[in-house]
Amino acid sequence: MASAIQTSCVECVSRSDRLFCDLPADALEAFNRIKTVSPHPRGNVLFREATPARGIYLLCEGKARLSVCSESGKRLTLRIAGPGEVLGISAALSGTPYEVTAETLEDSQVAFVKRKDLLQFLHDYREACLQVVHLLSEDLHVAYDRVRAVGLGRTRHPRVVHVN
Amino acid sequence: MRADRIFCDLPASALQAFETIKYATAYPKGAVLFVEGQAPRGIFVLCKGRVKLSICASDGKTLILKIAEPGEVLGLSATVSGKPYELTAETIDPCQVNFVKREDFLRFLRDHSEACFKVAEQLSEKYNNACHEVRSLGLSHSAAEKLAKLLLEWSSKNGEAAKQEPRLKLALTHEEIAQMIGTSRETVTRLFADLKKRQIVQAKGSTLVIRNKSALRVLASNG
After folding, report:
1. What are the structural domain ranges in chain B?
2. Is the ipTM of this complex over 0.90?
3. Staple partner for B63: which of A151, B12, B144, B171, CB 3.0–4.6 Å?
4. Considering chain B, what percentage of its residues have pLDDT values greater than 70?
5. Which residues in chain B are closer than 8 Å to A151, comparing Cβ atoms?
């Protein structure tokens, strides 16, 4: 990895085309204060399914695989998350264990926010809370797609049209 | 009549705002609230009764995702994102529902951050449930395993879990149970007969008694 770690949200050039990161200035600064950024090499497990949710992980750079596992160790991929995506929100929000395991697929830069700090942040910044609602809806759509695929052996109904 | 629990402990201003945007409606059993693939009109807050949520393939094969209970907000992800409803919602009891139009709901969320937070919580719960389904459907090997898991799940819901011999009321037909676990009605009927023969469960009318919890647990974990 040659480039220096981008640690400031305020100066980040990728910010504007990432849903979560496109926050008003005051919220952005607050978020900047509560996050810690670290590099994660390929193959690192960010969090494991069924462990208590410590916080959220924002993929500043890199990719991660989200999967679920059976008791016998068989693994099923839910989806591949890319840069700008926030992982673990649902668990961190509701205080339940992580539903999936997240593992980096390439060398990544990840911003971590503790659960406690996230909840306070969402209460303080209305815009951020709304962003999270949108993000969760997207996560849910993907999860339903996987349910459809494994349960019915096919992808989204062909007549369905995306309305954005 | 039970109030909309999700929006119950909000500040007075938010509750008042919600009152002005909701339409309280009664539906009989077997009514369809919305169909998978339809453009989202708004959310349906389930106040009373239960609703069957399912996904359908073009050949008619149906998968029941879950049975929604009072307090659940239906059509939530679609209403927020603007994408079509993901599921078909059909009442299995007479129901009381509060409908909120999409624009009104989105405005309500923008104006009331506490409500926004509650919605985020409910979306999280649905996500958790969907992941659970993916694991269950994608990783369980046999229908017997999935049925055992389902019975254990149901018996843990209505506070029966601690009992030596939990009871559960079968709200669904064998056909509907088959649609929940992705198998055929014949297989479900056969599996129930088998469970009864082995005295793992016992049927008393529409109530099922789990006689042998540990045997059922063994069946549920053969993965």
Report:
1. 5-138, 140-220
2. no
3. A151
4. 96
5. 55, 63, 133, 137, 182
Task: State both tokens at B187.
Answer: 């297989």
CATH of B140-220 among 3.40.1000.10, 2.60.120.10, 3.30.710.10, 1.10.10.10: 1.10.10.10
Tell how far CA B12 is from the center of its chain: 29
The DSSP code for A2 is -
- Residues with pLDDT less than 50, chain B: 1-4, 223
- CATH number for the domain including A132? 2.60.120.10
Query: Does residue A156 belong to any structural domain of this protein?
Result: no
Measured over the CA atoms of residue B157, residue B160, residue B162 and residue B166, the dihedral's sign is negative
Question: Chains A and B: how many Cβ contacts under 8 Å?
Answer: 148
Q: pLDDT tens across B2-52, in order?
A: 334 676 678 888 889 999 999 999 999 999 999 999 999 999 999 999 999
Amino acid at A149: A
Q: Does B56 touch chain A (CB under 8 A)?
A: yes
Could you give the percent of chain A with pLDDT greater than 70? 89
Inter-chain touch A154–B57, beta carbons under 8 Å:
yes
CA B102 – CA B10 distance, rounded (Å): 20
What's the pTM? 0.81
What pLDDT, in 10s, does the model give residues A104-151?
999 999 999 999 999 999 989 888 999 999 999 989 988 888 888 887
The answer to whether residue A162 is domain-embedded is no
Element (H, E) at A109: strand A108-114
In a domain, A30, yes or no: yes
Structural domain total, chain A: 1
Residue A116 near chain B (CB below 8 Å):
no
The CATH fold assigned to B5-138 is: Jelly Rolls (2.60.120)
Does any domain span residue A49?
A: yes
d(Cα A118, Cα A116) in Å, to the nearest integer? 5
Q: Say if the Cβ atoms of B81 and A134 lie within 8 Å.
A: yes
Joined tokens for residue B208? 């099922």
Task: Tell me which residue range forms the domain holding A95.
Answer: 15-149
